[in-house]
Design brief:
about 40% helix; signal; alpha+beta; about 25% strand
């Protein structure tokens, strides 16, 4: 029984082990990133990250320190930001700083090939 559970554990862990860093960017979360296109205040970290990337790639709105990234230039990839944040890692204190704005973030995108699976977000105040 233990060997079956061990083998099952290896199968479950295998996809994560094969995932690689497919992209990374740095961004400053400014006031413009805290509101959606309708002017509503955003309250979740993934919403702010998604708006930051839409502002940068679609609307041409950026702050000093914002970097280009190839992955979130795609509207389809921005649409899966929530899932990628939920599957990834962000500390609660970092999430609060991000939602409050005025934070510099480093976002590392992991997956296989050009398919992103999750992001790890680090906030530097």
């Amino acid at each position: 029984m233990k060997s079956i559970l061990f083998a099952l554990g290896l199968l479950i862990a295998a996809p994560a082990a094969s995932e690689e860093l497919v992209g990374q960017y740095v961004a400053y979360i400014g006031n413009e990133d805290l509101y959606n296109s309708n002017g509503a205040r955003l309250s979740e970290p993934w919403q702010v990250l998604r708006q930051d990337r839409a502002n940068y790639h679609r609307f041409g709105v950026s702050q000093p320190g914002d970097e280009w990234d190839s992955f979130f230039g795609s509207i389809d990839n921005r649409a899966i930001m929530e899932r990628m944040v939920m599957n990834g890692r962000i500390e609660p204190s970092a999430a609060r700083s991000l939602v409050n704005g005025g934070a510099m973030v480093v976002v590392r995108i992991y997956g296989t090939g050009s398919t992103g699976r999750y992001v790890n977000v680090t906030v530097h105040n």
